[in-house]
Design goal:
With 579 residues, the chain is of the alpha/beta class. It has 2 domains: 3-92, Roll (Ubiquitin-like (UB roll)), CATH 3.10.20.740; 213-569, Rossmann fold (3-Layer(aba) Sandwich), CATH 3.40.50.1780. The protein is 34% helix and 13% strand. The strands form 5 sheets. A 5-stranded mixed beta sheet has the order 2-1-5-3-4, with helices on both faces. A 4-stranded parallel beta sheet has the order 11-10-13-14, sandwiched between helices. Strands 12-17-16-15 form a 4-stranded mixed beta sheet. Helix 11 (358-363) links the parallel strand 13 (348-354) and strand 14 (378-381). Helix 8 (269-290) packs across helix 10.
Length: 579
């Protein structure tokens, strides 16, 4: 690799040829402000916040797209640069809906941060403002065009990372909007509700559908028994909302907070992840041994499921019929748990704390109502839970560590790793290996299926059976994999697909990471590391060894894939039109 030397604010740095001025400055520990920039996703130089002065150039240059050359001299902090950046910011603010006190992104807004940094203490230009209706028809995502700053980060992540492209720039000039085509609601286009657009948005133009009040109402209803369950990825991200280091595990503190909020029982979705492995693992074996539809594709990610329904309906029969873990848990709570306690399922209210906005859509699917009532009543994101905890006046960092309630709170390391891409595959292989061979797997950590490569492949030997497996995360990667299968280029027995890049740890409902942080840390890696640490720390690491899961089968379900298990824990999917 050719290396070149450049000077930035008098500091000489050596960087690879082709490096942008922004990246070179970061190497010199110089922080150039950005707004539209999102590393490897949106590098278009549109916002003009990253302007720099280049010796010999006739005008200021957008450092995020300007490649440096050998001997170049760059200045990032001249009066001309500061004035140009501030002017650009003031023009953005001139028609922005500045209701910061009531904005969900207040104090977590990149536009707000820049205004403080660049010393904007007055609005010099109070321009004409858009007054567009807020699109709140989706069960998962709310789009407020009046807060949009046209950075196009959401457009890039939807089109380039997820391979969908249901939002884009319309009109021109001052009338430019970022929206679905033909003024349609985001609910009426083939959006998969993954929420990656929310994660990418630097302001409050995109947010999750807030359902906190529904939960407060349920908690204050003396006629309801309110149960909460938490997904594995929540425990390795919630702490970030309280100033803790990324990847800090707060499992015990999270449980303590939920009890103090007033939930009658605090259960662990990891229990249902173990249950999913029992059902899905045996379903895979049935297909392998009975000539069933292959490859079997996991069905835990509701964003991926909706993507398949819209874009690849020919693969619907390949999907595992298993419900996602939190929906399985809801079904078990409203049947087995309610029956044991003599309660009417109508009086049991189930709240899921998820890293995912797509699960809000999933919870209102009519086919997910095993006992005549929705399996799950409300889904809250990690961010919504953080807001509830703060509203209740609690400091998560100071809470004691408490354990989940027994039985449906018991889980194994296999359930925990569902939160990272490759985790469902690894958990399944830990159990299927033992079912097929009668011998415990030599090493429960299947590193071949770990990592953040877009598509991973592995061959696993199960006695005389060789399983060809693949893992994809992010729907653009899923698309590439499915096209290879359709063409006959690839053949597999088992495929795991997660709708979000990195899996649930970077789901659309997780704490929002500012663009600057992506230059230093990869949340997919840091949060997944914490997931695997929790797996290693648990005494039981295989789903089929979970004593509470065994008890559920002994007392209620009979055996994996039994008729009762199918009635409660399995479902079907439906072809959806693209428009």
């Amino acid at each position: 690799m050719d290396m070149i030397k450049v000077k930035i604010d008098g500091i000489e740095v050596e960087v690879p040829a082709g490096t942008t001025a922004l990246e070179a400055a970061r190497k010199a520990d110089i922080d150039i402000p950005t707004l539209c920039y999102l590393k490897d996703i949106n590098e278009i130089g549109a916002c003009r916040m990253c302007l720099v002065e280049v010796e010999g150039a006739r005008s200021l240059q957008a450092s995020c797209v300007f490649p440096v050359t050998d001997g170049m001299n760059i200045k990032t902090n001249t009066p001309k640069v500061r004035a140009a950046r501030k002017l650009s910011l003031e023009l953005i603010l001139s028609n922005h809906d500045r209701k910061c006190l009531t904005c969900v992104r207040s104090q977590d807004c990149e536009l707000q941060d820049l205004s403080k940094r660049l010393g904007v203490d007055d609005i010099r230009f109070d321009g004409e403002r858009h007054d567009k209706p807020v699109d709140s028809f989706s069960p998962s995502i709310v789009r407020d065009p009046n807060k949009c700053i046209l950075c196009r980060r959401c457009v890039s992540v939807c089109r380039n990372v997820q391979g969908i492209g249901v939002i884009g720039a319309t009109e021109r000039g001052f009338d430019t909007m970022v929206e679905p085509v033909f003024n349609m609601s985001i609910n009426d286009v083939p959006c998969i509700n993954c929420g990656q657009c929310i994660i990418a948005c630097p302001v409050g133009a995109l947010r999750e559908k807030d359902e906190i009040e529904k939960v407060w109402d349920a908690l204050n209803n003396p006629n309801l028994h309110v149960v909460v369950q938490t997904a594995p990825a929540v425990r390795v991200a919630l702490g970030e909302e309280f100033g803790m280091e990324m990847g800090t595990r707060v499992t015990g503190k999270m449980v303590a907070a939920l009890r103090r909020l007033g939930f009658d029982r605090v259960f662990d979705t990891d229990f249902a992840a173990d249950l999913t492995i029992m059902e899905e693992g045996h379903e895979l074996l049935d297909r392998l041994q009975g000539g069933g539809k292959l490859p079997m594709i996991t069905s835990c990610s509701p964003g991926w499921i909706k993507y398949c329904e819209h874009y690849y309906p020919e693969f619907l029969d390949n999907l595992s019929t298993c419900k996602s873990p939190h929906e399985m848990m809801g079904a078990v709570i409203k049947s087995y748990y309610a029956e044991k306690n003599g309660w009417d399922p109508a009086d049991v209210f189930v709240v899921s704390i998820m890293p995912c906005t797509a699960k809000k859509f999933e919870a209102q699917r009519p086919e997910l109502s095993a006992v005549g009532h929705p399996d799950v009543d409300v889904v809250l994101t990690t961010r919504e839970l953080a807001r509830m905890i703060k509203e209740a006046g609690m400091d998560l960092t100071k809470l004691p560590d408490e354990g989940f309630d027994p039985a449906l709170g018991d889980s194994t390391g296999a359930g925990v790793i569902f939160g990272a891409t490759g985790g469902v595959m690894e958990a399944a292989l830990r159990t299927v290996h033992e079912v097929v061979t009668g011998e415990p797997i030599d090493n429960v950590e299947v590193h071949a299926v770990r990592g953040i490569e877009g598509v991973k492949e592995a061959e696993v030997q199960l006695g005389d059976l060789t399983i060809r497996a693949a893992i994809a995360h992010g729907t653009a990667n899923a698309k590439a994999l499915l096209e290879q299968i359709k063409s006959g280029e690839k053949e597999y027995h088992f495929i795991e697909i997660m709708g979000c890049p990195g899996g649930c740890v970077t789901g659309g409902g997780q704490p929002i990471v500012k663009a600057k942080t992506y230059m230093e840390l990869d949340p997919r890696v840091v949060r997944a590391k914490a997931i695997y640490e929790e797996d290693r720390d648990l005494p039981i690491r295989k789903s089929h060894e979970n004593p509470s899961v065994k008890k559920l089968y002994d007392e209620y379900l009979g055996e994996p894939n039994s008729k009762k298990a199918h009635d409660l824990l399995h479902t079907h999917y439906t072809k959806r039109s693209v428009y």
